[in-house]
Amino acid sequence: MRIVSSLIAVLLGVTAFAQDPAPTSASRVAGSVFVASDETVDSSNSKDKAQHTDFGAALRAALIKKQVPVKIMMDPERAEFTIRSTSSHREDNTGTKVAKIAFLGRADFGHFEGSIEVIENETGALVFAYNVKKGDYQSAAESFAKHYKNDYLEKNKH
Q: Which residue range is the domain that position 75 belongs to?
């Protein structure tokens, strides 16, 4: 009886496994990207001084705003490409802020740096990389979207 029960359990397990196939390149959506979320690191000297932002969300918004011709997927298994990023933000201290206003007449107090990679999911190949230094994360994300569209997508049309 135990042998029959074990055999039935194994057959049911094999049947269930066969019905749930692993994603293939055929199930990927052409021209689609998955943007992996990454929290921005605070690189200032003061604890919790700089904003902690999800740079992935800023990248997704910038791709839409700059009308980059890609479909943004929320399921990484369905995307043709994955966009990964690392970022840091440093906010000036009070003395530097006062000096910038008094002597330079400027009110930009942040320094944002981001490195972004676009990886083809099927091959694992790095197809585009971009490093950006801007005053804030939104400008950095929009700069990436513009360069990804113009420097990679427009030049690699098939």
A: 2-153
For the chain, the three-class secondary structure string (H helix, E strand, C coil) is CHHHHHHHHHHHHHHHHHHCCCCCHHHCEEEEEEECCCECEECCCCCCCCCCCEHHHHHHHHHHHCCCCCEEECCCCCEEEEEEEEEEEEECCHHHHHHHHHHHCCCCCEEEEEEEEEEECCCCCEEEEEEEEECCHHHHHHHHHHHHHHHHHCCCCC
Give the integer Cα–Cα distance in Å for 58 and 51.
13
* pLDDT recorded at residue 147: 96
> How many domains in the chain?
1
| pLDDT tens per residue across span 119-132 | 999 999 999 999 99
The CATH number of the domain holding residue 77 is: 3.30.160
